[in-house]
Amino acid sequence: MTNTIVTTAQDRMKNSIDSLQREFGSIRAGRANASLLDRITVDYYGAPTPLNQLAGISVPEARVLLITPFDKTVIKDIEAALNASDLGINPQSDGNVIRLVIPALTEERRKELAKEVKKTAEGGKVAIRNIRKDAMNDAKKSEKAKEITEDELKTLEKDIQKVTDDAVKEIDQHTANKEEELLTV
């Protein structure tokens, strides 16, 4: 019983960290990265479809994303979706492929993005703390139901706290890496 509470909390924390990393991947750092387009959906025959299911996305140069649609008739729809997105990058099409040239970031924009990374990381830490709270509540319920002893509860609480501390350290590490990536010219 006690191990399942810690394992469940650990799994949920891992999922939160993975989600945070995906969010960090969508914050552009002046370099081309295919994950920038993960959130883009295209209206394809009336159905919103993820861009990566409609086209191949490659990075031929450090600051260029090349989008090669599997179906050439959808190029206009992809361009419209890219223009409507929050990327702020104008697509350049030659009829067969679409190029996205990622502009170099200004110092001011880099600092804004670093603040955004910190804010996103804080959201991740809040999620981790909520998972810890849920696990602690589960442990206390088990103790009240006489499934575990008071000593086992104390040990379980220490284990949950250790898992929480490890998750927060991992978030801090990912945050520092992303900030360094953003602030490096």
Automatic annotation (TrEMBL):
Say where the protein is mainly found: cytoplasm
GO terms for biological process, alphabetical: translational termination
Q: Which domain of life is it from?
A: Bacteria
Q: What is this protein called?
A: Ribosome-recycling factor
List the Gene3D superfamilies. Answer: 3.30.1360.40, Ribosome-recycling factor
Any single GO CC term annotated in Swiss-Prot or TrEMBL for this entry: cytoplasm
Query: Which keywords appear in this protein's UniProt record, sorted alphabetically?
Result: Coiled coil, Cytoplasm, Protein biosynthesis
Q: Which residues form a coiled coil?
A: 132-173
The residues that cross the membrane are none
The compartments listed are: Cytoplasm
Q: Which terms does the record give in the GO molecular function aspect?
A: ribosomal large subunit binding
Q: Which residues form the Ribosome recycling factor domain?
A: 20-183
Protein family according to the UniProt entry:
Belongs to the RRF family.
Q: What does this protein do?
A: Responsible for the release of ribosomes from messenger RNA at the termination of protein biosynthesis. May increase the efficiency of translation by recycling ribosomes from one round of translation to another.
